[in-house]
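Before a colleague's protein record goes any further, I have to sign it off. What it holds is a sequence and that sequence's fold in C-alpha cell form. My question to you is simply how this chain folds and whether the C-alpha cells agree. Thanks in advance; the entry in question is below:
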Amino acid sequence: MKHLVLKLDDIGCDANRPVVDLVLWAMLEKIPVSIGAIGGLLKSIPQELVEIVRTAHGAGWLELWNHGFNHLRYDQLSPEDALRDLVDGHTAIQNVFGIEPDGFGFPFNKFDDATLRLVRSRYPEYFVYESDLNSFKWVSPEFNVFADGQPRFERFLERVGARNRADNLILQAHPPRWSKEGFREFTRCVAELVEGRGYVCLKGRDAIESYSKELRSEVPATPVARVLRGIESLSSAWVSKAPEYTKNLSNFENYFLTRFNSDTYKNWNQVLGELAPFQPKRVLDLGCGLGNWSLPLWLSGAADKLVLNDVHPTIVAALKDGMAALPRKDGIEISGANLLSAAPPQSAEFDFLVSANTFNYLDPVEFFKFSQSAVSRGGRMLLMLQTPAFNRLRFRRAFELADRSTGVEALESDFAMLVRQKYGVFPTDVRHAYPLEEIERLAAMFDFTLASRFLPFGEIKEDGESVYECLLFRKMNNMAREIASRPDWLSECQSTVGINFGSKAFDATSVPGNTSTTYFKYSGSWVFPDSLAAGDVEKIVAVKDSLYSLRRSEVINFNLLQHVADGESPISEFAERVFEFSKKFS
C-alpha cells in the first residue's frame, strides 16, 4: 500500500473559511485529514469551525494534533518554556474542541533531541510527525514565496515528478492562508495522488500503524523497508563496537553514531525529493563519515554502485565492520584514500557526488577540480556545508562558556574568511566558511550550476541564518567557455573568484583571469601581496600572532592587540573580538 497523509498546519491562524471548506470537503469525499492546531489562536475561531471539527472528528475523518500554543521554535526555547508551550497547546485543544490531541508537530518542523524527549516524556501517547513518520517523503503543494503560499498544481507536479518516487508521502500545507483558487488547486493535488497514482489517504496515527504492519509482514521488502532494516543492522553493529572505535575517535559514539541514528532517514527523504526525478545509479560519498547522506541510496536498491570514502582509519574500519553485518555486499566499495591528492579520475564514472560537512575543511579549488573529472555530464553534486553563521553560533557559545579551544577555532575560521575577502591571502590548513556567492561562482567555473538550495531537516539558525545548508549542483557542459564568452559573467567570476580563491582557480580552468591572492599555510609565515599597505600587514600579523598565542595558552600582547582594535578597518573590528575573548583568559 502507498500511504498518503494530509498534514495540514496552523488551524486558528489568520482566515478560518478555508479550513471550514477543507473539513467539509474531507467529509464529503471521505478523505481523512490530519490538522494541527495552534492553541493560543483558538480563542478567536468561530463556533462554526469548532462544530465542524467536532463532527468530522466524531465521524473518523479528522485527526487533531498539537502544534504548540504560540508556534515557537522549540529548539530555541529553554526546557521550561518548551514544556509550558506544549502543555498550554494541549490544554487549549481540550478546552475549545473537547478533543484529546492525537499527536504533535513541531512548529517550523524544527526540533532537537532534548525537545523530542520532552514531548515524549510529557505525552507518551502522542505520535510525533518529525520522528515517527521519518520514512515518509515530505512534499508541499504550496508555492512558498513571499506573499503567495498558495497551492499550485503545476508546481506540485514538478516536485513529485512524472513517476511515483515514494511509497509513503506526507503532503504538508497551511490552509488558513489559502484563497478559493488555492483550495481548488489543493484538491487537484490530492486527486492526482489518490486517483491518478494509487495512494491511500490515512490519518497520521493510522499511517504509522499500517506501515508498521507492512514492515513486519513477509512480503518482499520495499525500498523503504530495506533502508530501515539496513540502518538498524548497521547501527547495531556499530553500537556493539563503539567503545573500541571511541579509543581512536573520541566523538564516534556521541557524534557520528548519534547523527547516523537520528539523521539518516530524514536525509534520505530530503535528498530523494531534491533529486527527483533524477535517480542516481553510481554514487561517490567524499568524506562520508558513516554515510548518513548516501548509504540509503544503496540500501534501497536504487544505486548500483556506492563508494564510501573517508581518510580517518577508524571510520574506514567501522564501515567495513558494518558492511559485514549486511546480507548484500555487491556494489559497495570502502576507500581510505585521499582522493583529492591523487591523480584526477580518467573517466567521469559517477552520476552523484556527495560531500557532507567536509567541504569547509578541504582545498576548494582541488575539490571542484576533482569533482569536474569524477561526475558525468548531467550528474549531480550535493554539498552539505557550514555557513558563516556556524562560526557565529560556535563563537557565541564558546564566549558564554569561556571555552578557549572552541572559541579560538571559530575565530581562526572567521579570520581566514576576513583575510581572504579583504586582503588577498588564502590560509590553508584551517576551516573556511564561504558565503553562497563565492561557492556558486567557483562551481560555475568547473561546470557545476546550482540546481537547488535547502536546509538540512531539523537544523538550527543563528541570527536568522542557517548554520548548515545543502547546495545541489548539476554538472553542465563546458560552462567555463560560456563564462569566458559573456563579459558580464566573466567580470563577476573574475572579481569574486579572483580575490577569494586566487590564480589557482583560473589556472585549473579555461576561464581567463589573474589575481595577486596568495596561498599560505595558516601556521606558517605569510608573504603578503605588494598592493597591501604596510600598516594593514602589521595589523594582520598582530592578530594572527595573538590567535596563535591564545590557542597555545601563551601570554598575549594586549597593548598591541588593543592598538590594532582602536582603528576603523575590517582587521581592527576583528581585533576587537579577539581582544574581548582573550580577556576571559588573562
